[in-house]
Design brief:
Blueprint: H1 4-9, H2 20-26, H3 48-61, H4 63-67, H5 70-82, H6 87-90, E1 92-93, E2 100-101, H7 105-120, H8 124-135, H9 139-142, H10 153-160, H11 166-178, H12 185-201, H13 214-221, E3 239-244, H14 251-258, E4 264-266, H15 267-274, H16 282-298, E5 303-306, H17 312-324, E6 328-334, H18 338-347, H19 354-360, E7 374-378
Parallel strand pairs: 3-5, 3-6, 4-5, 6-7
Antiparallel strand pairs: 1-2
Amino acid sequence: MMRYKDMAAHVPAPGQMPDWAWFLHAIPALALLEQTPQDPYYHAEGNVWIHTRMVIDALMRGADYIDGGHDERFVLFYAALLHDIAKPATTVIDTETGRIGQPGHSRRGAIDARIVCWHAGVPFALREELCRIITVHQLPFFALAGNKSGQSAEFLIRKLSHELDLRLLAAMAEADMRGRDFEKKADCLVDIALFRELARDEHCYGTPREFADRHTQLAYFRGAQIAPDFAHHQNAGSQVTMMCGLPASGKNWWVEKNRPGLPVVSIDDARLELGLKHGVNEGAVAHRAVDFAKELLRAKAPFVWNTTHLSTQMRKKTLDLLYAYDAQVELVYLEQPPELIFKRNSQRDTSLSNKAIERMLFKWEVPLPTEAHTVSYQPNGV
């Protein structure tokens, strides 16, 4: 099995040729890239593997890679190596026009990279930095025009600066564009350069953009039309600890140890109360948990919301409800190595199988620092 120390040892120094044979052996999914076509308009160079190698070549010639420390090179190299890892699974070819697309490959690619790195034991901070880069690796191509949701370039840059290092994102985006044959490459490289300049103007190129306080920051990132430098009023509401993590990561134990005596909203508890097995009538289970949460929110009582909250979509449902009642949210993320997760789950009295957890991994999106008032990462859990 590939381990972090082997991955780190194979990060090439500037001017050194990557050991492609080792990477193909260590990460078998890379072999599929050579069989995966791309839209020739955007990628006249050919298949995904050709593009990936060109991207890494461009990356290693860049100043951020040459001047970077070992950890920065690790993040940049594996972000580049894995940035299109999901293209084989997301490729769609239009039967009428023959056009090739890979919708959602960035978001899915971040999940695939997370699973690979988790099994290899890559340190949490390095893993999440490279996965976050993969998720938005194309954004600097078009950030200056805003996005489809109407969010401005300033908004996107301010928010991203709290989620990753914009220097590394820009380096990855530039390498991605240089590592292809595309007739508008020069225009895109200008846009990336302007992305860098705007980040510098916002004083968040390599550091998070400053806000008046945490509540102002969260309200702004959730779409409030407010100025970042002036404190936004916060109404009184519940103090909520929202748990997040894979099954068997230690959430129940953490709550008992750190939030004793607080009411707990729990999908598992609701399931037991209804006498249902995992996966059976989940709608009724969720409805029971939400009703209890609303009672506590109306009373402005402190409580814990304890469930997996594994995907961004599922967390958003809970967070939207909490913020609608003016709750102040601390999001606590727990994690354990895979062997411990599966061992613990096998020893628990649960209807959730290890196979089911393996399927859940494909929805596994670690919370971003911008999702709550406070986000606490505890990658070694309990």
